[in-house]
Amino acid sequence: MKRIAVMTSGGDAPGMNAAIRAVVRYGVSKGLEVYGIMRGYAGLLEDDMKVLNFSDVGGIMERGGTILRTARCQEFKVDKGRQEAYKILKDHEIKGLIVIGGDGSLNGAALVAAESDIKVIGLPGSIDNDISETDMCIGVDTCLNTVVENIQKLKDTASSHERAFIVETMGRNCGYIALISGLTTGAEAILIPEVKVDYQALGDKLLAGRKRGKINSIVVVAEGAASAYTVARHLENRTGYETRVTILGHIQRGGSPSVSDRLLASRMGSAAVQAFIDGQSNVMIGIQGNNIVSVDLNRALQKKKELDLSLYDLANTLS
Amino acid sequence: MKRIAVMTSGGDAPGMNAAIRAVVRYGVSKGLEVYGIMRGYAGLLEDDMKVLNFSDVGGIMERGGTILRTARCQEFKVDKGRQEAYKILKDHEIKGLIVIGGDGSLNGAALVAAESDIKVIGLPGSIDNDISETDMCIGVDTCLNTVVENIQKLKDTASSHERAFIVETMGRNCGYIALISGLTTGAEAILIPEVKVDYQALGDKLLAGRKRGKINSIVVVAEGAASAYTVARHLENRTGYETRVTILGHIQRGGSPSVSDRLLASRMGSAAVQAFIDGQSNVMIGIQGNNIVSVDLNRALQKKKELDLSLYDLANTLS
Amino acid sequence: MKRIAVMTSGGDAPGMNAAIRAVVRYGVSKGLEVYGIMRGYAGLLEDDMKVLNFSDVGGIMERGGTILRTARCQEFKVDKGRQEAYKILKDHEIKGLIVIGGDGSLNGAALVAAESDIKVIGLPGSIDNDISETDMCIGVDTCLNTVVENIQKLKDTASSHERAFIVETMGRNCGYIALISGLTTGAEAILIPEVKVDYQALGDKLLAGRKRGKINSIVVVAEGAASAYTVARHLENRTGYETRVTILGHIQRGGSPSVSDRLLASRMGSAAVQAFIDGQSNVMIGIQGNNIVSVDLNRALQKKKELDLSLYDLANTLS
Amino acid sequence: MKRIAVMTSGGDAPGMNAAIRAVVRYGVSKGLEVYGIMRGYAGLLEDDMKVLNFSDVGGIMERGGTILRTARCQEFKVDKGRQEAYKILKDHEIKGLIVIGGDGSLNGAALVAAESDIKVIGLPGSIDNDISETDMCIGVDTCLNTVVENIQKLKDTASSHERAFIVETMGRNCGYIALISGLTTGAEAILIPEVKVDYQALGDKLLAGRKRGKINSIVVVAEGAASAYTVARHLENRTGYETRVTILGHIQRGGSPSVSDRLLASRMGSAAVQAFIDGQSNVMIGIQGNNIVSVDLNRALQKKKELDLSLYDLANTLS
Fold first, then answer.
1. Average pLDDT estimate for D264-285
2. Which of the four, A6, A302, B230, C135, has the lowest number of CB atoms within 10 Å?
C-alpha cells in the first residue's frame, strides 16, 4: 500500500480541516495510507506524525483551525534540516507529501520537490488570497464573511452616531480582504497596499459625504496599507470627527468554514491525492473558474498575484 | 438623460437588493435615470414604478428579500398584456429594462426583447442555480450557507441520539442545493432529481453505516426528488430507525446575503448597466470563472443547466 | 477521594456540554473524582462510564449536543433494571449522581434518590422550558435564537411576496418556544397548546391585516397545538392565500450554545457539585431571578410549569 | 388623546429599536399618541420630532442601532438649555417622556422629572450592564454573544499556533462584558477594572498553563482595566510569547438583537407606557428575576451596580 502524508503549515485558514478530511478519505478510498504530520515542517523534523483513518477525520470539516496544527520552523530553512526531514519521510516510506498553506509553506514544498524524490502537491490555504494561478485560496471566503458580519454590526451603531469608524483587516502585502469587505459593506473608503494612501483626499471625501447628508463613515484599512490608529489620527486632524478603531486581528483566521470553503477544500484535497496517483509532482492544485486544475508550483510561487483594481473602482462608484 | 428600469421577479433570492443598488448607483454615475418597477411584471402592468436615486438604495445591500418586491403575473403571459406593458414603458421613455430573476422571469425578459425595441438585460437571480451560461446565480451562496448552518445544528443532536434525520431542501428540477449542502456537511445520503432514488439501497447504506459504528444518519433530499416524509417512511420500514423530518422551506430564500452574493450582485448589476450603455440587448449577465460576461439570453434559457455529477460521486466518497 | 457521576438523558439541549464541563472541573477542583456515564440510564445499565479529568472537557463548552450522548431506556422503568443500576453505581463507589435532562430524566433521578442511598442532584436541561421551580432550563435561550434567526429569514422573503408562512416549532405540551419566538419576530399569530386554536378567528385576523396593508403573514405554531400542514389547509380554505410550511424539527436542539446558556450551565453545573458536597440530595438546581437555587426535586416535578400568558397578550398587542 | 414622547440617548445598544416599537405600539393600543424625538436631548432642543404610528415601527425590532439615532448634548447640561427643552415639550403638549439609555441619559431624565411636570420613565439601555436596580440592561445579551462569537473564532486559530491572544472589550468602569465573555469562552485570564491587574501573576499563570500542556492562551481585558497593547507588552516581556491583539470596538454595540434583548425591550417598553398611564414618574423600568418592575429612578442612579465577583472565581475555577 502506498503511503502519503499531509500537513498544514503557516498561518491557518478556515477550511484546512475540510482539506485534510478530503485528502484522508479520498486517499483511503484509493487504497493509500495517509499520515498526518503535526505542526507542519516543525513536526516533520520531530517525526511527529500518525496514520489518519477514515473515522479520524469525522466531524472536522465544520471546524475552524487545523487538527494537525501549524507552526513556523527555522530549521527547515537550512539545508541540514531539510535533509533530515527527507530522511524521516523516507524511513516512513512516504512517497507523496501534500502541503496545505500559504506562500511560505508552498515555498518549502517546492524545495522538497526539488531536493528529494518525494512527490509534492501544494494546496493554497491563505485568507489573504495572495497566491497566483488560482482564483481562490482555502479560507478566503470564510474570512471575508467574518469581516463583513463585523463591519455590518458597526454600521448599525455608525448610523446612530456622528462618527468615523476605522476597521483594520489583515493583508500585509495584499489588499484583497479589505477591498472585498469594503466593497460589500459599502464602506466610504478602502485603504490597501496596492493604492497609495492620500490622507488629504480621504479627509475631503468624508467631509464631502457629510455635506451630502451622510451621518456615518466607515473606513476599511488593510494592515499593510496603514495602522488603523494612524488613519484615525489623520482623519481627526483633518475633519475634526471623533474616530473609533476596531482591530479584527486573528478572529479573521477562525470560524467554521463557509460552504464555499468546504467545497473548495473538499475538491482540492481529493484532487491533490488524484494528482499524486497520476504521478504528478511539484504542482499546486488551484481553481480557475469552476475547474480544479493542477499548475506548476514554481510558476504559482514566482508570479505575483495581481489584485483586480477594477473592483476598487467599482467600490468607489457604488459607495 | 437616458432612462432605464429595473425589476425583480419570481422567487426572490438574497442579493437581489445588492443588484438593485448596483444598477441604480452605477446607472446614476453614468448619467442615467433609473426607475424601480414594483412587483415585477405585475407592477409594470399597473404602472407602479418610481425613480430610484443614489440615496434610495442606501443600506439595502445587506438586506434579504427585495425592496422592489416580486409577484407572479398571468396577464404578462398573454400578448395583450405585454403590449400594454410596452406602451407603459414607452410612455415613460424607458429605453432599457433590467430584469433580475430566475427562469420564468428571464423568459419574460426575452419576450420583451423580441417584441419591443426596449433593450433588455437579464440577471440570473435564483437560489436553485439552475440557469445556464453562468457558473453561479445571485442567491445561491447565501442559500447554501443557510442550509448548511441548519444541517450543522442537526448534526449536534444527531450525534447525541440514534436516529435518522431527513432534511428537505428546495430544488424542484435541480438538485444543486441538496447536493452541495449534503457534500459540505458530510450527509450520509443525498437524494436529487437527477439521480433515481433507490430506497432499498438507501436503507442498506444506512444499516451498513450503523454497523461500522456510525451513530447518526443525515439524509438530504431535494423537494424535486421526494418528500422528506416519503423518505422517512421508506427508511423506517426498511431499517426500523426512528426518523425525524426537517422541512426548511422558504427560510432558504431569506437572510442577509453572503459576501460572495453581494460581490456577484454588485458586479452583475453594474455590468448590466454597462451592457445597456454599450448598446447590447437580449443578453444575460453571467459569471464564468472570475469573469463577468454577457451571453445571449435565448441561449441561456434554451440550454439545460447540467449538474456536475462528479460532485455527487465526491460526496459519496468523502461521507 | 469521593466519587460522583454525571449523565445527560432524554432529548438533548445546547449547553449540556457546558454543564458537564462545569461539573467535572468544579468537582475536580474540590477534590472529587467525576465519572461520565454514557447514554444516560441506558449506558448506566451497561456500565458504560469513564473518569473525566480536567482536560477531557476542554473545548466542549461551545459545542452543541452532549459528549456523553443520550438515549432512552425502558429497562430503567422497571424495578429490576433500577436495582441493577444501583448495584453498578455502588460497585464503582459512586456517592453522588448528577442528572442533566428534562422531565422524564429527572423523574428517573427522583427514583434513584428515593430507592438508593446515592445522593442525586438534577439539572433542568430542556429546550421546552417546561420544568417548574426554575425560570429557565439549559438550552432554551439557544433554541429560541435558532428559531428566531430562521423566522427572520422567512420575513425577508415574506415581505417580497403575498403569502402566509406557517412555522412549526417544538413544544408538545408547552408553547414557550412558539410564544417567545413569535413575540420576538412580530409574528401575526401564535398557536400554542395552552390556548384553544380558533381557525376562523385566525383567518379573519390575517384577512384584516391584509386589508390594513400588510403584505405578508407569519404564523408560528407549536407542534402540540397543531401540525403546520393542518394550519396551512385551514388558512387556505378560509383566506384563499397561498401558504408555505417550514418544519424546523431537531435543528432546534442543536447549535453552539448562546452566552446565556453557557453561563447558566456553568453556574448550575458547579452548584450541583456544591450541593452534593453540602450533603444535599433529591434536589434540582434552578435559577430564580439571578439566583442559583436548590429546590426539592419532587416538588419541581409535580408542579406544572405555567406559561406566562401575559406575554401572549403582549405579542398580540405588539404585532 | 394624551401624548407621550420617546427618545434614545447616549451610546446605542441592540434592542433599542425593539423598545421603541413596544413603546409606540403599546401606547397606540392604549389610545396615546407617541412622538419619536430624534438624536436624544440634542434633537429635543432642536424640536426634531415626529409622530410615530403603528406601522412606522414595523420591521425595526430585528435591527441594531436606533431609528431615532442618538447624540450627546452639552446644552442640556445647563439650566437654560433644559428650560428650553421643557418649553418645547409643553408646546407639543407632551405629558410623558420615555428615555432609553445608559447612566448619563437617565441622569438627564431624572433632571426632567425634578424640574418639570412632565412624567418621566427611564429604560436601561447599555451594553455595559452597569445600571443598578435591574438585573439586565437592554443590549447586554446581544453584546455578549457578539463578543463570544468572535473570541470563539480566535480559539480556532489559537489552538493551531503557540501564542497568546489579547482581546479588548468595552467596559470603562464595569467589567461585566469581559467577565462573562471570558467565563463563557474559557479564557485563561480575565482583566477587569474591579480587580487589580497583576501582570506578574498573569505571566506566571500563562507559563504554568503552558507547562500543563496548554497550547494557546486567550486573555480578555476590559478597556477600563488596561489597554490590550499594554497587556501584550507585559506578557511578551514576562513570558517571551508572541502576542496578538484584537480590539473589538464598536462592533459590540451593533448587530440584530438576540431573542433575550428583544423580549426584554418589548416587555420594558410596554411597561414604561403602562407606568405612565398609571401616573408614575421619575421611575426606571427594570427586570428583577423574571419580573418587570418599576423602581425609583434616583435610587437606581445613585446606587453603584456591584459586579458579582463569585463569577470571577467561577471563571478561574473552570478555565
1. 98
2. A302
